[in-house]
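Researcher: Here's a chain I'd like modeled. Treat it as a single chain, no partners, no ligands.
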Amino acid sequence: MARPAVVLAVWALAALCALAALTAAAGWWLPAVALGALAALGTWDLLQTRHTILRAYPIIGHTRYLMEMIRPEFRQYFGESSTGGTPFDRETRDMVYERAKGIKGEEPFGTERDVTVPGYEFLRHSLRARFAEDPAPRIRVGGPDCAQPYEIALLNVSAMSFGALSGNAVEALNGGAARGGFAHDTGEGGISPYHLRPGGDLIWELGSGYFGCRDADGNFDPAQFAEKAALPAVKMISVKLSQGAKPGLGGVLPGVKVSAEIAATRGVQQGRTVISPPSHPAFSTPLELIDFLVQLRRLSGGKPVGFKLCVGARTEFLSICKAMLATGVTPDFVIVDGSEGGTGAAPQEFEDHVGMPLTEGLMLVHNSLVGTGLRERIRVGASGKVASGVDIVSRICQGADFTLSARAMMFAVGCIQALKCHTNHCPTGVTTQDPARARALHVPDKTQRVFQFQRATVASAAQIVASMGLDGFADLGPEMLNRRIETHGTRTYAEIYEWLTPGQLLDHPPQSWRADWMRACADEFC
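Model: Modeled as a single isolated chain. Structure tokens:
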């Protein structure tokens, strides 16, 4: 391997200088000692497990941390660029790193944010504040047709595929999920050995390529699906209709990253770029989608089945709701992916301008289900830039039951957002299939960091709810989340947005929804 060879070369130079000092001139002792110190540092870098950059880049990797110590602004050049969707701010990233490392996050001198800027949001607190009694509450997922309901955590690992991530990264994420009792979404790349080895709970995601359960032509294979869905680790099945980073496009895995192991996991050819269709071959209408979900539930033995989407047109989701009403069949859950999310490479135009942001998409899905009288049967998940306890509480105020996080979980396993995801040259071993680079990611250490981040973040959310004087997350509502809409005024989400009442679309749809409701049709995605 190249990196150990460099350290060995430095040791060799140090030995040569020492030999010269003994046989020629004493002046050679100075470079001998200096090179010996560097070689010792490089050896320690290769053997230590806490710093991925140093394992990947012995000796020279210290310059990154030195520059951050001298000038924190250097972080923008060393790992603070976005790789998909809109970036997290520095304060949020630092919080994730600290929680993952088990470092307390208190800071002096109050907030660094400008609270007078329109768009700033805050939660109300109460003089009846208390300590949180349950730091890790769970939500039951499973409607009336579900035979094996699942108790899901408030914060889970969002969809990231093996192939997009290295095996070490997947194993660390799943290990953290196993240790913390939360769920790990496989992404559309199928179920790999790294998903199964640690024993964490899985949400098996089926994209339009049906990886892991496809026939030779790329179509859905019921027999393969039933075999894998029966695995004890698989707790939920999620059909990916679209994703936040690139809604309307299928996933792309460059051929350079399609190793023999990934090809076997996905059921594709090694070394060939894999492009998923932009929509599902198995169905083309809302009614056919419902039929497909029924088939998956039956084949899985009654496990919770649902779908994930980045919301586009309101009429399309209302069309799905009408298909549910027409058949009397509902999914067990819907995961809303925000357009601002995303962890991998995607076309810039799609990242910036296609798809509905999570806030609007989440409230649309929640209100649609409430307005059609279906909300009590369906759990709603929120995925997209969820990194803190406040994020969890805010999303529940907007209509979610649970949340999922991708990018923050990547930070927990060592990602520095170096913009190398699609090149196979990730410097921290997170998004590469290069064995030498992936080795830098030490699985046991990063497993602990994923566990610590999730546990601390959910505990923070639970304490925020208790500080609001509430008995639990079920008591949250849009009236508790405030947003500054102008320099001198704030309003609650209950005041800013329209919220439907149960069954309102069926009885007397409001004017603002009437045209879309009338246009929606169960026979097609209108």
